[in-house]
Write a structure and sequence with these properties.
Elements lengths: L2 H10 L4 E7 L2 E2 L4 E14 L5 E13 L12 H14 L7 E8 L2 E14 L2 E7 L8 H4 L24
């Protein structure tokens, strides 16, 4: 989801509560805060020596120990207020990919994509997902795009003696 799509979605559901589902039936606690918004410029070189560049917006969530047991999560309107204030200080790149950064005691720190959303009762539920790492230079590394049978592991792109690193 692009940053402008995220902000538009929030604008359309201002009167709802904002929930984040970081795994199936696992939600960020109602005690979450938006603690940071990062405007990231990625400038990369992959294992096939190809360059790439893109922008990301990362919204960091944190569960406050002072608000444990809170009965209702943040409203979409409050989240929009925070995000709009950030946008006035450091303007967003509207086409930047949006990620949610989150962790708790049972879930490692990860940057999650908004995979889908649902409206349920009076809530906007953002369904988050992890995007697995991947080799962007499969052709240069001689890796076939075919699915691997269960139990088999594809040859690593950058193994010693490989043709791409």
């Amino acid at each position: 989801m692009k940053t402008h799509e995220f902000l538009t979605l929030l604008e359309q559901h201002k009167n709802k509560t904002l929930l984040f589902e970081y795994a199936p039936n696992a939600f960020v606690g109602n005690n979450y805060h938006i603690t940071e918004v990062k405007h990231i410029q990625v400038d990369s070189v992959d294992c096939g020596a190809q360059t790439d560049a893109w922008n990301e917006t990362i919204v960091q969530l944190w569960e406050s120990p002072n608000d444990i047991g809170k009965d209702q999560a943040m409203s979409v309107l409050k989240a929009l207020g925070i995000l709009n204030k950030v946008g006035r200080i450091k303007p967003y790149n509207p086409v930047a990919e949006l990620k949610i950064e989150y962790s708790n005691d049972a879930f490692h720190t990860a940057q999650l994509f908004i995979n889908d959303y649902a409206l349920q009762n009076n809530s906007l539920i953002l369904k988050l997902a992890v995007q697995k790492t991947d080799c962007k230079a499969k052709e240069a590394c001689g890796i076939k795009e075919e699915a691997q049978p269960l139990g088999e592991v594809a040859e690593p792109c950058c193994e010693p003696g490989g043709n791409c690193c």
